[in-house]
Model the fold of this input.
Amino acid sequence: MTEPLLTIDDLAVSYRARRERRTALEGLSLELGRGEVLALVGESGSGKSTTAQSIVGLLPEGGRIDRGSIALRLAGGPIDLARLEGRALEDIRGRRVALVPQDPGTSLNPVQTIGASVAAPLRIHRWGRPEAIRRRVVELLDRVGLDDPERRARQHPHELSGGMRQRALIAAAIALEPELIIADEPTSALDVTVQRRILDLLDDLRGELGSSVLLITHDLAVAAERADAIAVLRGGRLEEAGPTRAVLEQPASRYTATLLADAPALADESPRAPRPPAEPFVVVERLAHEYGRGADAHRAVDDVGFGIERGTTHALVGESGSGKTTIGRAVAGFHAPSAGGIRIGDRDVVAARRDRSLRRVVQLVSQNPFASLDPRRTVAQSIGEPLQNLGAPDGRRLDRRELASRVSAAIAHVALPPDAGDRLPRELSGGQRQRVAIARALIIEPAVVVLDEAVSALDVTVQAQILALLERLQGELGLTYLFITHDLAVVRRIADTVTVLRQGRAVETGTAEQVLLRPRHGYTRALLDAVPSPDWLRTSSAAGIDPTPLEVA
Amino acid sequence: MPYALRRTAQAGLVVIATFVVAFLLLQALPGDAIVARYASPELGLTDAQLDELRTVYGTDRPVWEQLWASATGFLTGDLGTSLQSGAAVETLLAAALPSTLTLAALGFLAAVALAVAIAAVATFGRAEWLRRAFRSLPPLFVSIPVFWLGIVLLQVLSFQLGLIPVINASPAQALVLPVLTIAVPIAAPLAQVLIRAIDDTVAEPFIAVARARGAGTRWLLGREVARNAALPTLTIAGVLFGELVAGAVVTETVFARTGVGRLTQEAVANRDIPVLQAVVVISAIGFVLINLAVDLAAPAIDPRLRRAVHA
Done:
């Protein structure tokens, strides 16, 4: 057996936190074979990014490798990256070890052209003369599948889409044909259909260059589909490692089994069964919305309509730019649509949107629980705010005692610890913060809740918990949800009915069962196909799919 | 380019508004310049004679008429007559302006150089204590009063160390201390903004990406950070031009230099309204021009603004 390219042995990393040092990695050992893909899987705080940063010597300030080694076996003999510093380290970075970063939106210098960014590793490592570098940049941009590479090289990052930016970053990473490519959540910020193409590109390039790839991801489905081997991290320790199929089919640790069960894309479950049709409670008719005016006008939403029955969940699914958030905000009464109507029960939302009493009927929970809570208010203050503004659900003003008792009831309702009320948002985890946001939306006892990507920023196990909480509350309170998401796997878990959006238009509307199992529209099928899942898993779960022939719309 | 046109028109409006507001405010000052200049008992002028003087200087006419006369005068290059010296204001300004422009330009350049040096050491300095020390310089510099700094520099460098002669100094030597005095209070906020901008830029993911490509400190600072940090700094630099004008008044008085600052100080003391009006308008024009240049330069630095400009 040939020696692996990368061997991490007993690696321990800690960060300085106030007075003591906090351990981020505790005795991690890993191997990555030549030409192989090793997926490093784990939730936030598991140490997967710390591992990547340790390899390229880019630990954030206060971070330190306490012990262990990171052996990279190059032609000239092995190098211990854990001991490398200064010039010697800079010489390895970009040339032998390259990084494909997480967020293509912020990983390119906004004031540099794409060409300059891709040329940077070539120029830093003095690859050749300026004209040669220029030719090489165009060649690289062409190789990663950017059309008109000459022009792309002259453009700036803001002129490119997220997928195109990630292609440019990959071009820069492979410029010097590195032995090791570290891909740190390379597709987390991208739409599913784009994610698929970027992962395909990485696969192709790995085959061509014979590089090894360390794929860091929170998405087990991506790991399952793309990696030869998987290492599961938890709290800075290796939970288990092994060939992908072995780990996923017979997980040795209970934690891996939980992760697998919670990963919506891998879950083997059917969508909610359709209910007998009833009068819709929320009605959206011929909704249209334009941003800008005149020649610059952009039609974000175009003639979209759907109905939601009381006590059910309707999912709005689409990629970025599909108009799903615009619709959600219009339903919540935050802005008036350019055309069309929205009714909740017998209330006209468009006409009543400035009416504060509308807030008793419909509430919004947004994606980012870090940004949607006031950092200076305690949890109890945030949750109680709607009651202070609007009074009790029946309109009465509440005295202090009653307010406090309602707030603590709400805290209990969303299964937060009883003492959470006195804490500040920063003292809570992401999942806990989202529970606070949900409690704040529900304390006013609305009939409808618009959930805008409300679980997208959360780890899978937390995501599963929040989805279960939302289902429970729906059952208990008879809530109607408008659930906005890009993630079809989440739709399968929670939705009764679905509208698939593309560039502002509804391409398909129907029950979850029909849309997910018997999609009529080609775009819905493309979205479903793009959900990562390994072939061997797909065939095993396909047995449960109704083999009704497809109707082409 | 409609953006450039729009900004230029706005700049023109600001100058006009400044002219009118300055004129009205100076008119609203209690008492009038004729009384201040000629009503002292030694001159022994009668009220009738004072009225005659008012007619000569035109101060007896309605305010709007005076404003109109003054405005048309400005457009034709006639800035009025100094009440104090009787000389044409444009002649006084022409004599004072070159010296002040030299002082301001050199002071500003020195301030930029000082700010860049402070910011570079404060953010990329080798040792942590060094970075900390340089980080605390701007707050210190901001809190130093200009006149005090001028006097201390004069005392230490000229009188005690004898590095720069006070008497018979060459024009270049005579500039050193005033330039330093005017530069320090401008360099401080500039450095502060620059440090902040560099900190923000360094925290951006693309810097980590550049490091992962093997970039060293010099590449990072020169190629990745500089241009990103330049924009907020440039904007604040335009605003700080106002400081230069105020700094010139004090500096020229402390160092007994001729110049617009000195002229202003004397005009204020003597309530020489035509001179004040001219100084205010000239300063406003300078301020507006510099900020116009900053605004027009911004899209050249940050390509994202080019799109916003066209939209």
Summary: Chain A has a mean pLDDT of 87. Residues 179 and 211 of chain A are 5 Å apart (CA to CA).
